[in-house]
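DM from R.C. (forwarded with permission)

"hey, sorry to bug you on a friday — could you get me a structure for this? deadline for the figure draft is monday and I only need the backbone to look sensible"
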Amino acid sequence: MKIISFFICTLLLVSCSSNKKVPDNEILKSDFVLAFGSCNRVDLPNLLWDDVLNTKPNVWVWGGDNIYADTDDMVALRAMYNVQKEQPEYKKLTESTEILGTWDDHDYGLNDGGVEFEAKDASQHEFLNFMNVPNDSPLRKRQGVYNSKEYEIDDHSINMIVLDTRYFRTKLTPDTETSKRLKPNEYGIGTMLGDAQWRWLENELNSSKSDFNIIVSSVQYLSDEHGFEAWGNFPHEVDRLAKMISASKAQGVIILSGDRHISEFSKTEIEGMTYPLIDFTSSGLTHAYRNFTGEPNKFRVGEVVFTESFGILEFNFGAKKVDFKIVGDNGIVLEKLEQVYE
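My reply, with the result:
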């Protein structure tokens, strides 16, 4: 499909930018705009929907914790989803923008929950209803909410790969030795995605011809020192994904994550990849970790944002460039990063 460019952004060079930069005086159109966010309570005001609408995104991506239900009562869960669907500004967004996304523990139904949650199939049904997935969609027959969609823009494309880090995720290891909640499992023990989803993901990456491949993970992939939920609690799965991305030769792989009630950019080099892997965390929409005093993250680029915010990615195919922005109330850009992909 042909996507109409929605707005023009002037390239600003910042300290956390890629080493390869476009000239200061070159004005570039955004060929595609992706907006995303996570951690959204329906009993708290969301002051950001008007700002999301103002970015005129081509797609809105829910990063998880889209409501806070923490329940196996499907009537209560459905009621909360309906409250969110009827929120006036969000309703405007659904009328003008495609909606994609995944879930996390608080809309899945069990805090820090995984494969053991007995109501997960019923919860999946309610989630798919919230996402307006047709009754005859193959997703209705799939275990887990993972899915993908390719967006074609003239001669270019973006492949959205949405993961489910809940349905198959196995037991976590409590940290009884420090003040942290969790510690990494023994290497090789447990899984984030489960066998079926891993096979599906490998095929998605290996078969992709898209200019960019966006992987949506409800929990952080790179940051792994904070002691909360993250891919780092399964270190062998971190390595597996890195090797899979590198071996696939997929172009422009980017990870989007949520969960943490802070927003930040993490970035690393992976052997065999010609560009760095960025994990863009955007959280939360209605409540943030305002008492944040710092935590280690060896992959962090720039500063942590610990006020309510959402994320946008502005794609420019001609320059092979993505502008990443953390946006707060009144459309204020709180942190930004640019990356050129070769």
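R.C.: lifesaver. Confidence is low (pLDDT under 50) at residues 1-27.
me: no worries. The chain has one domain: 32-340.
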